[in-house]
Amino acid sequence: MRGTGTSVRAVALAAMWALAGCTSPPVEIPGAALGPTTPAPTRGQDYASVRALLEISPEGDARVTLLEQRRMRVDRDPWQTIEADDPAITRSRVTLVAERRCKVKTGRVSRAVIERASWYVFDAGRLIAFDHVSFDSTCATRRYFGPSAPDDLRTERTLKRYVAQRHMESRLSTEGQLRLGIALVGVGRLEEAEQWLGLGKRRIGRIDSQLRGQVQPNRQALLEAERAELRALRDTLELRLAQAHRERDEAAARAAERALRAGPGPSGPGPNAETQSSP
């Protein structure tokens, strides 16, 4: 019976994410990586397969080593550290924080060593949110982000603080900010998405100002290419936000209409009670 309960819960989670528009791949946040990277997880993946991804090395001579992993059960307060074989991993809300090192020779005596941390949130053994770092053959990185639903922000923010204390996060590019905003719309975090949209618009405005002045031809070409890419992402984010706000307003209107049709509850008089009781 316990296995049946877990499978039902997993199906329910899959349905919830599908309704929230979260069946698409995670948002890719550009980094220094230019070539193919180690694989990224996808929402709904099971714990064992995500854990296996963490020790995959990229093509070439680079080698990835798992330095530390910490599992915590987060459906209790305070969070509880658990072991790798704890049954809670497939039955409860659990997080995994993994620190990895990528090493590759860059010359006869020199070697690149990059250390990064990633975090993952599982419910009943299935991945529901993550911030994953992948490595390419030079140990350059690229991030893949699967944002949490609005009702699980506390867990995400706690994990971000934990990781930031151990590894300084690189600043998001404007492209990354807009891509992140698009992903946040998909999980209903509209206010945050609008903040990223505002930052993207400001960057586009600064590029416009630069191009109105005197710019070297090679610099102009770079700025125009960046502006075209950012405008496309801005337009996509604005469209997604407008659609999400419209759907939210329509849902609120339907809820209000249902409440009116249902009439007054048993605890109080209806809106015409005073008129009906007056002589």
Q: Gist?
A:
With 279 residues, the protein is an alpha+beta fold. It has 7 helices and 7 strands. The longest helix is centred in the C-terminal third of the chain and has 46 residues, at 217-262.
Element layout with pairings:
Elements: H1 2-19, E1 27-29, H2 47-53, E2 63-73, E3 80-82, E4 93-105, E5 111-123, E6 126-135, E7 141-146, H3 153-166, H4 174-186, H5 190-212, H6 217-262, H7 273-277
Helix pairs in contact: 4-5, 4-6, 5-6
Termini separation (Å)? 63 Å
Q: Work out the strand percent.
A: 15-25%
The description of the largest β-sheet is:
7 strands, antiparallel
How would you classify the helix and strand content by structural class? alpha+beta
Q: Strand tally, please? A: 7
The percent range for helix content is 40-55%
**Secondary-structure element series:** HEHEEEEEEHHHHH
Task: Describe the model.
It contains seven helices and seven strands. The protein has a seven-stranded antiparallel β-sheet with strand order 1-7-6-5-4-2-3. Helix 4 packs antiparallel against helix 5 and helix 5 packs antiparallel against helix 6. The chain starts with a helix and ends with a helix.
Top keywords for this entry?
279 residues; 45% helix; single chain; 7 helices; 21% strand; flat; alpha+beta; 2 domains; seven-stranded antiparallel sheet
